[in-house]
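Supplementary Note 3. Input sequence used for the single-chain structure prediction.
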Amino acid sequence: MPTQHKKNLTPIDEYKFELSKELEEMAREELRETEEMRKHAIQALRDFIWKNDKIISTRVDAKFLLRYLRFRKFSVPMAEEAIERLLALKVGSYGNHWMNNLSIEKPSVLKLLEAGFIFILPQRDYMGRLIIFYRPGVSNPKSPTVGYDILILTTMVYEYLLEDEENQIRGVVHIGDAKNIKMSHFTVFSPQFMCRVGKNTEKTLPMRHKAFHIVNVHRSINFISDLILNRMSEKLRKRVHFYPSFDEFKAIDQAMLPKEYGGTVPMSKMIDDMKQRLMRNHQNAQLYNQMRANPEQYPRAVLEGSVKSLQYSLNSTEIFEKFNDDIYGLQGSFRKLEID
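The predicted structure, written as discrete structure tokens, is reproduced below.
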């Protein structure tokens, strides 16, 4: 095994499981994780990366690779596919404007963070899962960069959370406050691009989504909610719950919510904590920015995040036969109506 390789953005390390017995048992029962399986799978992923001519650079440290192995319940081929597809998306029209620019130093991204678009609640839920709180209504849909700012900020938060192995194993819970969302918010992204983000995220974001709680959903946007649900996998769709107000929301103890929602800790404190965490994770965000594949090695459909391309393995001949660049043109990402 080489100790260094030109593709490596991080050193080769020897992994040691240092989490609790409870998490060790959970990983074994839910994810099929054992010491022997872990050792074999980590090495298999490293070998795949080193031998794959399409991959230019990526992290190879054990904690990073375990994200994908746990995400795919230690199916090495599925973990390989998830990593490579992420790297391909980063160099195509789908993600090259935001997946390589993770930083809160951009003023518009920092403004979105300080407005409380997304942050973490201080306490975990009764099952030990971390809770992410969203307030999309605070974003300005008229801002020319708001779409990319949302994607950059959300990706940075997810990258921070996935550095914690407990979150990799337990998964996370999402709570969204839909207050102040207007129809103009749904014009930030085209239906096509929203669909692509959702489907590609299901395939490449190594996060275990345990529940989605959407509160303050006005009946005027119910059809949008239905559209989004119809595009989700059945597994995730069953985990989505809607509530007319926080008075009816009982999924977690109200005291855990921001003070403005009936809890004890002011939202400003939670937002500042999120800001400090992202600042501390700056180095890992920069590593994420540097990860990439060779765009010349993939059909344009893959680089654009085409939903249809997700049906085929990146290493199959079918994907090149199905998507011929001569007939598959660039469709664009924003403010288009086509859905693929």
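Confidence is low (pLDDT under 50) at residues 326-339. The radius of gyration is 20 Å.
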